[in-house]
Amino acid sequence: MITPVADMVAAANAEITTISTTQAQTYLAQPDYLFIDIRDPRELARSGKIPNAFSCPRGMLEFWIDPASPYHKEIFARDATFVFYCASAWRSALATKAAQDMGLKNVCHIKGGFSAWAKAGMPIASPS
């Protein structure tokens, strides 16, 4: 039997921190908060991103977090709070849970994802 992805997302949300778009916006100017956009490049090109967000496609997350991986990215070794988001907060819930399980201490994700961010009129940057 296949576990429905909605059940996986609900289970992840029960174990992680979720923040509102308003709360997330207050973190934008704080250097100890890093926004991680886990959408794929086509989504970024189509709709932009949260200003200064680091793009990490969901399929690479665990490889980029792991310092022993040949694909490791130094951004994930920083002492910061990682704010994950995707389009609607399903992938980011799973990503936040995975990052937490891998040992990142300060992780959260944005309720409603980028869609909620854009709908709330929050700032959007062109992809870089």
From TrEMBL:
Pfam families, alphabetized: Rhodanese
CDD domains reported in the protein's UniProt record: Polysulfide_ST
Name used for this protein in its record: Rhodanese
Superkingdom per UniProt: Bacteria
Organism encoding this protein: Amylibacter marinus
Domain Rhodanese: 29-126
